[in-house]
Amino acid sequence: MEMATVRHRPEALELLEAQSKFTKKELQILYRGFKNPIFLSFFECPSGVVNEETFKEIYSQFFPQGDSTTYAHFLFNAFDTDHNGSVSFEDFVMGLSILLRGTVQEKLNWAFNLYDINKDGCITKEEMLDIMKAIYDMMGKCTYPVLKEDAPRQHVETFFQKMDKNKDGVVTIDEFIESCQKDENIMRSMQLFENVI
Fold first, then answer.
1. How far is CA 3 from CA 6, 37, in A?
2. What are the pLDDT digits (tens) for 74-87?
3. Residue 182: enclosing H or E segment and its boundaries?
4. What's the whole-model pTM score?
5. How far is 167 from 163, CA to CA, in rounded Å?
6. Contact at 8 Å (CB) between 48 and 34?
7. Alpha-carbon gap, residue 50 to 28, rounded angstroms
8. How many Cβ atoms sit within 10 Å of the Cβ of residue 125?
């Protein structure tokens, strides 16, 4: 007895158009890319959804010099907003919509959600250190200049000195957004990909 592959059908494009910041034409292009391995190997899944293991395998192709497994886990959780263990075309579109076309507030909320690993509404030093270690692992040992072993911890200390306004050992969403909005470099980076599609 053969099992048929269950194929994911995207919501009506009109609904996605209303929910995202993409036009119908852009959504059609994205969906073709979602189903075409040339766009990103992401969407090689015949079912139209990507589970975490596949997400990690695909993401690792973009960072062959390092280990992207942990960062891909955090990123997968940020895209899997309904926490069902998979990223569908709709999940992908809504995340991209925020990252590429969202307001500064929406982008900062998305970033905060990525860093708030346990989703308790604040970022601890331990969570930020986990993220920083994952980023440094992903970059690999072949960076220039060569990074010191304690670079992730130093990055976390700098982050907390800048963002933990009341010095209580955690960064809340309000502290995060206020600090980011006052940082010119962060604000410039929020605009980098606005006209990508």
1. 9, 24
2. 999 999 988 899 98
3. none
4. 0.76
5. 9
6. yes
7. 19
8. 16
